[in-house]
Model the fold of this input.
Amino acid sequence: MIHLDNGFYYGMGVFETIAVEAGCPLFLDRHLDRLKAGADFLGLEISLSIDDILDYLKTHPLDHQALKIAVSEKNTVYSHRQNPYTSSQYQEGVSCLLSEVRRNPSSPFTYHKTFQYGDNIICLKEARAKGYQEALFCNSDGLVCEGATSNLFIVRAGEIYTPKQSSGLLPGTVRAYLLDQFEVREEAIPLKTLYQADEVFLTNALMGIMPVRQVDQVTYPLGPHTRKLMGAYREEVKRQIEAHYRQNNRVY
Done:
């Protein structure tokens, strides 16, 4: 039963979408930390723990699915669905359309995954109606920020870049993994620089690392740096699954 509260009326709630592969919730620590940070920002008291999530997965065995956890003042709701990304998208890349909506780097809501997600949903719907798979946002200064459901990376002259958080973006879990494990430079990225990139890719919890073949009318190859990172990410997923089953004394 859903209780009516400020989450329902005013969007005062937080959520996480977690990829579950072979029963293993990927980057669970990072997701829970971000959920709690968002709850603290909204003044919500939550007691959700890793064990709570693992207990849910014991009674709801999932594979290649998305686990969503939504938390508001009076509610903690679990739901799940299939991971929507397909093998052909990883082979061909996805296309992105620059939205006319601008990110607001001065709003603290920009940096938390709250129920106030309307811009993302509407702009993504508009992009898909025009034949694109993702919408991209710039901020009011014309700097590239993020996608409606993803973080953005570019490759230029062999270097990997991603927009700095202060440009106005939600810090994603896979973005954090890449920043921790690889040489990635956080910088202010003008739109012109995006158009001139050698390679472009997106990240989020469900897609992992997704190559971009097109932004507006500009096309990109699936280049060697993106391929290398995609391979490394697949190995990281395998490592997390193996660790998950060792800790739970199970064989997969």
Remarks:
- Helices lie at 6-10, 28-42, 50-59, 87-92, 118-129, 173-181, 191-195, 224-247.
